[in-house]
Specification:
about 525 residues; alpha/beta; nine-stranded mixed sheet; seven-stranded parallel sheet; 23 strands; about 20% strand; globular
Length: about 525
């Protein structure tokens, strides 16, 4: 069992998540069983109660854990399913330690950051490393070196190297080498200071990865190596790419695996062909189409990260370049929708921008524009259909209007008396049975599926018969037929919406059927427009 720790310095958002996913991908292609873990220094137990503007998308795993968006990168790059144990927060650690203290586990002891907090961190890391026969665990540390919140995690990392011994742990540090246009030169001082800060903590990096806009020449690398006390052949560059999935190939061409192999004493590494490279290899982009994502968090693209990736996966498979038009559901002109070949309405929470989503869905339904609704997008589609087809002008969700007279979307019975918000929604993997002969069944090619959920409100069965009689097809139900999971309109070229989050299971080379169907339908729409 080997562990690779990935830390970052100078600024946040350097790309530690993509780097960690990339090094994990390369090691998996070399035949190792790899898992990736994220350490987040915030005191929230998980990101589930955070606004997307605070922390971006909340990624949900099979076991119902609400995790950092980087776990989405990890799953997509590894093509593996991770769990809640692969995302550790300060909140989880302190919650566990305080619970143990109250229970009496530390009787007689003064509970302190060292050793009690750091011991708990180490135990969680080792538990993740030993699960599922993992041979190499990559651990990304959130934040930057020097942040007060990260200090217990960094101290635990320092201790683990001492505990596990030589060749069991590798420390990789990502840092920034900025290019100053005024002087026309790359500056190494931020990297020098970042490494000094790391060394003060007691962690000596084995490998430096420098994010840079311009290539690092030999002189720059030698300067960084000299002032950072690392070997020159341990300094690597990481440049921006037009596609995240090219990052592993770029790192491989730098020779970083050979260096990691030496540090961990892995021996000669022989990488097999990358499934990410295969997904990109045959892409020609012969078709360009426009897709509107009508959402309420469009100012921050990380809020819809997995959706962006799922669209890309489907575009690669359909040999189409998909230009995504991000439309704010709170303020837009319907004329914007006339310039796209497909419309997607994603999930979200709260009443802001809901009427804009409903208007976009009505436009798609009435004008035959291919449409995919996800979670809240499905709920808005039900509301729109009830208003338009059943004449229920006040149809709404109790989430948006607790006193609404026609709650076609309502709280689940087991949600009505909860007094805690965190971790109490319907979360994780649930089965769904598809209606024979439906669009959903044709897309999936099977009758039973499993999908990941994250929501609190559901389709209200009081209105089920009336909606079906008016033409709405309930094409996906829970095995007991109680919960509506998928709706569609059979007379429409492509109108389908789901209560779950299909984007979490989409992969490069294996796009999700609902996204694949949307892009395929959009291509057909574009052909009609051009004839």
């Amino acid at each position: 069992m080997k562990i690779i720790f990935v830390t970052g310095g100078v600024i946040s958002s350097l790309g530690k998540g993509i780097f960690s996913a990339s090094i994990g991908h390369l090691l998996k292609c070399s035949g190792y069983r790899v898992a990736i873990m994220k350490l987040d220094p915030y005191i929230n137990v998980d990101p589930g109660t955070m606004s997307p503007y605070q922390h971006g998308e909340v990624f949900v795993t099979d076991d119902g854990s609400e995790t950092d968006l980087d776990l989405g990168h990890y799953e997509r790059f590894l093509d593996e399913r991770l769990s809640g144990k692969h995302n550790l927060t300060t909140g989880k650690i302190y919650q566990t330690v305080i619970t143990k203290e109250r229970r009496g586990d530390y009787l007689g002891a003064t509970v302190q950051v060292i050793p009690h907090i750091t011991n708990e961190i180490k135990a969680r890391i080792l538990d993740a490393a030993k699960s599922n026969q993992t041979e190499i665990l990559v651990v990304e540390v959130g934040g930057t070196v020097g942040d007060i919140e990260s200090q217990p995690f960094l101290e635990a990392i320092r201790q683990l190297r001492w505990d596990l011994g030589d060749h069991q742990v590798a420390n990789i540090h990502l840092t920034l080498v900025p290019f100053l246009n005024g002087s026309g030169e790359l500056k190494t001082k931020p990297t020098q200071h970042s490494v000094q800060k790391l060394r003060e903590i007691g962690i000596i990096p084995d490998v430096l990865v420098c994010r840079t806009e311009k290539p690092l020449n030999r002189e720059i690398r030698e300067k960084i190596a000299l002032f950072s006390s690392v070997a020159r052949d341990s300094v690597f560059q990481s440049m921006n790419s037009d596609n995240l999935y090219r990052a592993p190939q770029a790192l491989q061409s730098e020779g970083i695996l050979d260096k990691v192999s030496k540090v961990l004493n892995l021996g000669e590494i022989c990488t097999k062909e990358s499934f990410l490279a295969q997904a990109l290899e045959n892409f020609k982009g012969e078709t360009t189409l426009r897709l509107a994502v009508v959402g309420k968090y469009v100012e921050l693209r990380d809020a819809y990260l997995s959706i962006s990736e799922a669209i890309l996966h489907a575009g690669l498979a359909q040999n189409a370049r998909v230009e995504v038009r991000w439309i704010d559901s709170e303020d837009y002109d319907l004329a914007e929708l006339k310039r796209v070949q497909a419309i997607l309405v994603p999930g979200g929470f709260g009443p802001r921008g809901i009427e804009g989503k409903i208007s976009a869905i009505r436009y798609a339904r009435e004008n035959g524009v291919p449409f995919l609704g996800i979670c809240l997008g499905m709920q808005c589609a039900v509301i729109e259909y009830a208003r338009s087809k059943l004449g229920l002008e006040r149809a709404n969700s109790r989430e948006m209007d607790p006193d609404c007279r026609e709650p076609v979307i309502d709280l689940m019975a087991d949600q009505r008396f909860l007094d805690k918000m965190g971790g109490t929604m319907r979360l994780g993997l649930y089965p769904c049975v598809l209606k024979e002969g439906s669009l959903a069944e044709r897309l999936y090619g099977v009758r039973k599926i499993d999908e990941r959920h994250r929501h609190r409100f559901e389709f209200n069965n009081v209105y089920r018969d009336a909606l079906q009689a008016s033409g709405l097809v309930l094409s996906g139900l829970s095995p007991d037929s109680h919960l509506v999971e998928i709706i569609e309109i059979s007379s429409h070229p492509y109108f389908i919406a789901c209560q779950f989050h299909p984007e979490f299971l989409s992969r490069a080379g294996r796009p999700h059927p609902l996204f694949l169907g949307l892009i395929e339908a959009a291509k057909k729409t574009m052909v009609k427009e051009n004839t």
